[in-house]
Amino acid sequence: MEALVPAFLLAAITQFCDKPALLAAILADRYGRPLTVALAAGLAHVAVNFAAGLGGMLVAPMMTPNARALLLALALIFGALGTIGSGKVKDRLAGWKLGPFLTPLLGVLILAFGESTPFFTLALSTGGQPWFAAAGASIACFGVAFVAAVLGERTWQAVPWRWLRILSGIGFLIAGCWIGVDALRLT
Fold this sequence. Notes:
By secondary structure, the chain is mainly alpha-helical. It has one domain. About 80% of the residues lie in helices and about 0% in strands. The longest helix has 29 residues. It is globular. One of its GO terms (molecular function) is metal ion transmembrane transporter activity. Keywords: Membrane, Transmembrane, Transmembrane helix.
């Protein structure tokens, strides 16, 4: 259970700053079916996070506790760099004619593999509870996708996410450096 809450919190903070939520808002407006889009986005996040959990479970036996801590530190540092970056979606999937379920499912699935949340899930999964880490991250991702889809693109874009990106990026960077220094036994 100890991986559930950190995975939930990291995923929630990250998802508010990442592109999959914006894509869910865009597609909910386009199709006019926010619940369908939110469900599809949530399933895409479940697939990505459980794949990351499986990966963490497979590599965990080969890692020392310091290596696990260093992996988490790197995930936090890369997460910091990702959250400070642009929150704009480059492709609005305008040419995709797969409907209100498959378009968000595949679009968010592809987009989510390149985001920070699966890296956090992978790092937390090496601690011994991969399914709890995947479940916590998936619940948070679904919650954020649901809120984004219900609010729609215009309202979602009106929220001042820039400050959350900056503050979470600074927090992730500090935590990542702190854990990394401790993992390398430099303290």
